[in-house]
């Protein structure tokens, strides 16, 4: 008799601990009670709820199954089991449970409501919509139904109808957690950044400690061009959660954008120091490579850029930066391959034509180098550097008239460019050196014939 009393006391204690959100301690009390009386179905169900709070969903499923074995057909516990299956993305099992509840309880609206979400997750949007209308016949003011069908509509690209449904959620339940965020994301996808910002702020007021939500708001702020404000928001996130890798990476991107690659690298190294290799952060290798490139650390920069190029072989930005890095490191043949890959994707890329031309000039292939510099000018008629290097190519090829014409064009395009003016002042020297070299070669050939 004393044992049974102790078990009841422990269950009462577990409920008190649950009210204080001390989930682990509450679970310990229920486990102790079940050790005394393992055949109480409701205690197993309570145990499942606590395990869900602790994100131990697989164990929660087992607890609900045990509860239903002891008390088959309990509608509420069955619904809890179906939701747990859905959280584990075991959607077929979740549907089986919800359908079983609906067969026994045809007028129980939640059995239809939850199936909207499951069908949407499975991409079965026609069934989701059908289930929505069946649920509406039983309860046309269920905010969960409108929330779930909004997700289905958004997944189909019907953003305006999704926003309508989510706004209906707010009419029915102004404090509904997560719906303002969904509306904000939908407006952001439409490019309506101010509307998105307003809904993000509403969601933050409902859930102020959610750093992932704050991160989305900071990203939106950056997207709107408010760089300083965004940086402050990312810094605030790191004050709340110093291990927030995405926020630290974003702050590094901002330093890079501000022309401070050394500070950017401090952020990127901190992300790595947290045990993150950047694999889960889109663009991490690219930004690390860009920072190292801007710091003049070309050999180090090539490694992350090569990884980025391997993952995104059709990314023009990655291939261009890798090519520039290899060019700066004098790995000319590898750089040529990068610029050729860019041109295979974008056949009118003036910068790729020019940089390929520079590589070929440095490899001594002046005809080919000139050809690509001219293609760069054709694609971008005011491209000063391409004009400069075309002049250099013409000089190497002793095509003086064309060199002079291109130089005049370049100076007209950029009259303040000192490099061009310096080249103009030394133009005669190039001709003289070529003449001396040509005379020297003639004399050597003559000397060779006389000896013979």
The radius of gyration over CA amounts to 34 Å
Could you tell me the number of beta strands? 0
Shape by Cα distribution: elongated
Cα separation of the termini: 126 Å
Helix content: over 70%
By helix and strand content, what is the structural category? Answer: mainly alpha
Total number of helices: 26
SSE sequence, one letter per element: HHHHHHHHHHHHHHHHHHHHHHHHHH
Largest sheet: none
| Portion in strands | under 5%
Query: Would you tell me the overall average pLDDT?
Result: 91
What would your notes on this structure say?
With 452 residues, the chain is mostly helical. It is built from 26 helices and no strands. It has helices spanning 2-19, 23-36, 41-53, 57-70, 75-87, 91-104, 110-121, 125-138, 143-155, 159-172, 179-189, 193-206, 211-223, 227-240, 245-257, 261-273, 284-294, 298-311, 316-328, 332-345, 350-362, 366-379, 384-396, 400-413, 418-425, 427-451. Helix 1 packs antiparallel against helix 2 (23-36), helix 7 packs parallel to helix 9 (143-155) and helix 13 packs antiparallel against helix 14 (227-240). The N and C termini lie far apart (126 Å). Residues 439-443 have low confidence and may be disordered.
